[in-house]
Amino acid sequence: MKILPILLFAVSTRATYALASSVTRPQLKYFDIQGAAETCRVIFALAKQEYDDVRYKIDPKTFASPAFLAAKENGELKMNLNRAPVLVTLDGQTIGQSKAIERYLAKKFNLMGNTLEEEAMIDCIAEHCRDVKDAARAKGFSRFTKNKTDEEKAEARKEWFERDMPEMLLKIEDAIKETSGGSGFAFGSSTTYADVAIWSLLRDCPTGDLDDTQKASEKCVLLNAVAEQLASNPGVAKWLSERPESMF
């Protein structure tokens, strides 16, 4: 009577192994834009690790993505609640949520320090950067904001880049004065996930926001040094020069 469960377990195990072994490289699945997956791509580039950059094409006129809909239908995106991105690991595990993927990759590639305390401090800096992005989104001046007039958006944008963002960045500047172990590094004296987060905030913003972001951060000497150091990494520089062009 116990033979059948054992056989079923054995078959299930072999099937799982076969599925996992069919993945020869990690697969990062997202739309054919930079968006929420770009920091993950940069982490791969920084670590010089190969992966499959699976992209769901988007129609530039309708924003429809048949490939994304197909991925939802076949269950590829369940671990991110039928959203993208997801990361499929070498053992066949699927990870959802962009920030969870970023932290997983950062730990895997030794970008989170050597102790729990160091990891927490690095994560703290990354969260500060996320706070800035969230505050910008809440300000409501992007082209996707629908409940404001163009004049209201213009005023909100002016307030953000001339007052709100500079104030927040200076606070982060003061914070990394406590953690930086050398010019170009947010924590200690080597590249960490915190550096990637700062670069993403200051250098990988939408093209139309880049000049205003640079003006907003002009008093942040340490933050700009971190962003420049990260961008000059050979792996990152190569990716930035070769990455596919996208709508945003």
Quick rundown:
By secondary structure, this protein is α+β, with helices and mostly antiparallel strands. It has helices spanning 3-21, 38-47, 66-73, 98-108, 116-139, 150-177, 193-203, 207-216, 221-231, 234-242, and strands spanning 27-31, 52-56, 86-88, 94-96.
In words, what does this structure look like?
This protein is an alpha+beta fold. It is 57% helix and 6% strand. The chain has 10 helices and 4 strands; from the N terminus they run αβαβαββααααααα. It has helices at residues 3-21, 38-47, 66-73, 98-108, 116-139, 150-177, 193-203, 207-216, 221-231, 234-242; strands at residues 27-31, 52-56, 86-88, 94-96. A 4-stranded mixed β-sheet has the order 2-1-3-4. α2 runs parallel beside α4 (98-108), α2 (38-47) crosses α10 and α5 runs antiparallel to α6 (150-177). Mean pLDDT is 91; it is low at 1-21.
Structural class: alpha+beta
Largest sheet: 4 strands, mixed
Q: In sequence order, what are the helices and strands, one letter per element?
A: HEHEHEEHHHHHHH
**Backbone shape:** globular
The count of strands amounts to 4
Question: Number of helix segments?
Answer: 10
Oligomer: single chain
Uncertain segments: 1-21
Neighbour order of strands in the largest sheet: 2-1-3-4
Defining key terms:
248 residues, alpha+beta, 4 strands, 57% helix, globular, disordered N terminus
Secondary structure elements and their pairing?
Layout: H1 3-21, E1 27-31, H2 38-47, E2 52-56, H3 66-73, E3 86-88, E4 94-96, H4 98-108, H5 116-139, H6 150-177, H7 193-203, H8 207-216, H9 221-231, H10 234-242
Parallel strand pairs: 1-2
Antiparallel strand pairs: 1-3, 3-4
